[in-house]
Amino acid sequence: MRLAKPLAPGSTIGIFGGGQLGRMLALAAGQLGFKCHIFAPEEDSPAFQVSAAHTVAGYHDFAALETFAKKVDVVTYEFENVPSDTAAFLESQALLAPSSAALRTAQDRIDEKIFIAGLGIPVAPFAAVNSEADLHNAIARIGRPAVLKTRRFGYDGKGQTKIAADTSTGVAWAEIGKAPAILEGFISFNKEISVIAARGWGGVIAVYDVPENHHENHILKTSTVPAGISRATAEEAREVARTIIAALDYVGVMGIEMFVSGTKLIVNEFAPRVHNSGHWTQDACVVSQFEQHIRAICGWPLGSTERHSNVVMHNILGGESARWAEYGASARTGVHFYGKAEARRGRKMGHINVLTPRQG
Amino acid sequence: MRLAKPLAPGSTIGIFGGGQLGRMLALAAGQLGFKCHIFAPEEDSPAFQVSAAHTVAGYHDFAALETFAKKVDVVTYEFENVPSDTAAFLESQALLAPSSAALRTAQDRIDEKIFIAGLGIPVAPFAAVNSEADLHNAIARIGRPAVLKTRRFGYDGKGQTKIAADTSTGVAWAEIGKAPAILEGFISFNKEISVIAARGWGGVIAVYDVPENHHENHILKTSTVPAGISRATAEEAREVARTIIAALDYVGVMGIEMFVSGTKLIVNEFAPRVHNSGHWTQDACVVSQFEQHIRAICGWPLGSTERHSNVVMHNILGGESARWAEYGASARTGVHFYGKAEARRGRKMGHINVLTPRQG
Q1: In this predicted structure, what is the pLDDT of residue A24?
Q2: What confidence score (pLDDT) does residue A214 get?
Q3: Among candidates A301, A348, A276, which has minimal Cα distance to A78?
Q4: Most buried of the four, A67, A230, A332, B52, by CB within 10 Å?
Q5: Could you give the percent of chain A with pLDDT greater than 90?
Q6: Structural domains of chain A in order of their starting residue, each with its CATH number
Q7: What is the reported pTM?
Q8: How far apart are the C-alpha atoms of A335 and A331, rounded to whole Å?
Q9: Residue B308: its chain A contacts at CB < 8 A?
Q10: Contact B337/A33, CB-based, under 8 Å?
Q11: How many Å apart are CA A180 and CA A177, to the nearest integer?
C-alpha cells in the first residue's frame, strides 16, 4: 500500500516497539503535531511515557494488532526483529513503512549480503552455515579469523562468536545455538563509519554527514562527526547509502554500517530503522533522524540534513546513568535519557551530544 | 518548600495546564528521561497527547489536586492565571515552582508595576482604576493616549482597551467590564524586546540572547534574534531580567517584556512561565527554554544559553496552519505544531524557527 496523500499534523502514527528509539520517534512526532500510539509487549516500555496511547500486547496477538492498525494512519517500527508474519499482517491492515519486504531483507544476514553484493557494493566474504560440516567447509574457504553469526535476530554482538586461529568448530557451532548462520570473513579495517539516509514515498533521498563509530564490547560507544576520512570516501559512503535505499524502494530512515579498509568501503549491514549512530543529528542538525523518519513515512518534504556544528555522541551505558548531573553541567551538551528504571550492565540508558563549532 | 535534592531522570513532573507550553515542557522533560503528569480541565488538551498520565479536572477540584500532587515530584504551570487559592493549595501539598508568591505578583498588573518600579527599573506611568471617577482622574494625571487594562487575567490583548484622544471614559470603563483595572501611560517606543531568563533553586541565573518582537493585533507574530539594538542595550536588558528574577527568589524560566524608547528600557510586564518569545531557543540553542525550565525546577545545573545560529521565530496563527507542507519544505527551518484540532482565527497553532548562520 502507498500513501494516498501526505498526513497532516493531528494524524496518528503507530509505533511498533517501545524502546528508546520508539520514544525518540514519538517525541519528534509530538514536535510536528502528530499523535502516537505505541505497541509493545512490556508494561514499562520507555516509549509509553511520552505518548497518550499505547497497547500492551504480544507481537503475535493478531486481534490486538488489528485494533491497533485501525487506530492509526501509518505504522512504523523501531526494531528490525519484528516477526515477518506480524509485519505482513500489519501491512495488510494499515500503511506500513518501511515495507515488510525491506524488513525481510534486513532480517536475514545472508539475504542482506546477497542483496548488497548484487548492487555491486563490496561486502565481507561470506558463506551460509547450516551445520557443523558447513562451518568446517566455510572456514576452509574463507579462512581464519572469521565471525560466525546467526542469520537472524542478532544485535549489539548478540548471536555471534569469533572464529580465532584455535577455535573449535564444534564449540563455535554450539555457541550460537546451532541456528542457521553465516560465516563472515574478518575485515581488517581502519575505521567503522555509518550513513544515516532517508527516503520518502516519492523517492526523494536525504543523507546526513558520515559519523565515525567506536564500539566497546560490540556496543556503540561514540559517534564522531565529521569522521576522520577523506571527503571522497565520505561522499562515496553517502552514494553507497543512496544506492541501497533506492534499490529497496525504502520509505523512512535507515542506518548503514560500513568499514573503511584503506581507501575501500565495505558494507557491514543495514538497519531498517533510525540508528544509534544517528543520534548526533538531534543536536547538530535542525531536523534530527527521528523527525526525518516521521517526515518520510508521513509524506512530508524531507528536512535538510545540514549540520550546524561538529559533534561527538557518547552512549550512556548501565551505571554511567548515575552521572546525569555531570552530563547536565557540561557546556554545549545535549542530554538525552530514555526513562529506563533499571541500569543493567551495558544497557543503553541515554546519550549525550557534545557540540563544538563547525569546522569543515 | 525547597527542593531537598536534585530530581533524577525517572522522576515525575506535574504540569498544570494543558496547552502548547505544557506540551513543549512535556516534550523537553521526556528528552531528559522524566515522566510527566498533566492537569487540565479540557478533555482535548494538546499536552495530553505527549504524556502517558493526565488528569481532567477543574482548577478548583481540590480532591483531584490533592491526588495529582501526591503522584508527582514537583509541580509547575504553563500559564499565569492559575487561581491563587489553587496555587497555595498545591504549594501546601507538593513542591511548586515557580512559587505562589511569584505567581501572585505576576497576576496583578498593579502589584507587578509596584514591584518592578521598587527595584529602580523604569515602567510606564500608571494608576489604579476602580471606578469611572478613578479613570477620569487617572487620565487627567497620565494623559492621552493611554491603555486601560484589567488588573488580572489579561493576555494577548484581551481585557484591555485604548484610551484615545476622543474615547469616552464611560465606554472604556464598560469595555473592560468595570473590573478592577490599571491605566498605563502610552509609551512611544522604537522596539519591543523581551528577555528569557532562568533561575535555579540555588540562585544561579541564566539569560538568553534578546529577541526583538513584532505583534499583530496584540498577538506575537515574530521574534528575531539578535534584536536590532546595541550591545549595551541588550546587556542592560539582560541585567534588568537578572534583577527581577533574583528579587522574586524565582525558580524556573520567566519571560520579561520590555520597550526600547530611544536608549531607555521600560519594562512592560513579566510572565512567570516559558514564553512565546523564547520559542526560538528550541532550534538555535542546545538547551531550549523548555528544557531550561525543567532543569531549573528539578534542581539540575542550568544549561548553556549559547546560541549557535541567528533565528527568526514566526507564530503560525489560525488558518496559516494549513500551510504545514510549505513550512516543512523550507530549509533550515524548525517546524513545531501543537496538536490543536480546530484552527480558530488568531489561535496559536504552531511556530517555525528559521535559522541563518550566526553573525555577531
Answers
A1: 98
A2: 98
A3: A276
A4: B52
A5: 94
A6: 12-96 (3.40.50.20), 125-185 (3.30.1490.20), 191-357 (3.30.470.20)
A7: 0.96
A8: 11
A9: 308-309, 355, 357
A10: yes
A11: 9
